[in-house]
């Protein structure tokens, strides 16, 4: 099995039974904020795009690059579709001219012609990508590969049960806006960033240890930031709180925990994987490339500057009535929302900075009141500040996912009172009838489900599944004193009270080993 690195989470997998192109991303994403690093735009995409199969893990725009898919990937390729709860991904592929699809049943091995086997695991929580993320397992002639990209399954046993994996490709770096955009003192940002950076690596080590593959490939990050306004987000400034470490940092950190089987794929690197080992050739020496990272970024910044400026010129739409169109778009969804609206629990404020860079219009999305209206000088728990032009553009293009556009762009600042609230971001991922109805149904089922199994962690008996996204706490749970941390997403819980310390809601069931379990709610204690 040959694996060719094509940048970020992208790769081409070649076997004698066919080729698979995964997640090709080349063009800037999220309001021209994110670019692939190392740069992959100079690869021979005319040849790389001539494949038998195409797999895109999810709809995040650093994985689903519509322009590149349209221009460079063969329309004769069969698209391997995860079993997602909505038809959005297939609809988008069809709009680009793809006509051949294989809808892979979730977690079931599919035998393709000539002995090639694949399995796709789809994650379907509203917080997984925009309504879904996925991983691809591939086997040919006894060689097995898992492309986990940036999916976060609760465990990898479904893949391990299929046989020993020889190549494990997974995310290790950040792909979020926290904590950089928050209006916090720099010392606090650094502390929170270092905590998140450490958690990212801890989660990666846990996945690697679970699968125990022969070879580990760090992929799916980090992006680079070439706009002058975002340049500080690149991990080149000696900031220990930067959440975007690169592949060379991965190798260094991996070595500290005993890892010796890491392989970096630069764009154009080729690894031949067999059951006996792996041989890799690179277009340039890896150590030399990352030693010159700053120079590479500066060269890219100058080369891509016209691309960024052209994108910026397209954002302003002064003809858009922002308040009126936000009311028209959002209020019907507020009326239909039960779980998300209750979860947000208060007004969310958008401060929109005008073209002059000074004037500000403040608009509130009032979840309890089910309306969008001008700000009325009330207290809000969440506030976002961004350019008016960005909101105009979202409304102009009828964007249904403001998380996978505005928020991931990092072109905003945020402030909040109290804990992180996942429902805020879940709602702004679901600005369509189809998405909202799915998310409401998911939370309804999630809330009604019961989790009766308990486990013992240290001095505590706790429910086995994390209340957040059902991670198995026997694998991801760490107890320190009276606090439980789920390492899958870093969520923390106060065990004596069960209260979630990370977000609103999500109470955990717990009691000390030497104490009686509390009676279920509504049950009499005799």
TrEMBL record:
<feature type="domain" description="Rieske">
    <location>
        <begin position="461"/>
        <end position="515"/>
    </location>
</feature>
<keyword id="KW-0411">Iron-sulfur</keyword>
<dbReference type="InterPro" id="IPR036866">
    <property type="entry name" value="RibonucZ/Hydroxyglut_hydro"/>
</dbReference>
<dbReference type="GO" id="GO:0046872">
    <property type="term" value="F:metal ion binding"/>
</dbReference>
<dbReference type="GO" id="GO:0016705">
    <property type="term" value="F:oxidoreductase activity, acting on paired donors, with incorporation or reduction of molecular oxygen"/>
</dbReference>
<dbReference type="GO" id="GO:0005737">
    <property type="term" value="C:cytoplasm"/>
</dbReference>
<dbReference type="Pfam" id="PF25451">
    <property type="entry name" value="SCP2_Rv3818"/>
</dbReference>
<dbReference type="InterPro" id="IPR017941">
    <property type="entry name" value="Rieske_2Fe-2S"/>
</dbReference>
<protein>
    <submittedName>
        <fullName>(2Fe-2S)-binding protein</fullName>
    </submittedName>
</protein>
<dbReference type="Pfam" id="PF00355">
    <property type="entry name" value="Rieske"/>
</dbReference>
<dbReference type="GO" id="GO:0004497">
    <property type="term" value="F:monooxygenase activity"/>
</dbReference>
<dbReference type="InterPro" id="IPR036922">
    <property type="entry name" value="Rieske_2Fe-2S_sf"/>
</dbReference>
<keyword id="KW-0001">2Fe-2S</keyword>
<dbReference type="GO" id="GO:0051537">
    <property type="term" value="F:2 iron, 2 sulfur cluster binding"/>
</dbReference>
<keyword id="KW-0408">Iron</keyword>
<dbReference type="InterPro" id="IPR057330">
    <property type="entry name" value="SCP2_Rv3818"/>
</dbReference>
<keyword id="KW-0479">Metal-binding</keyword>
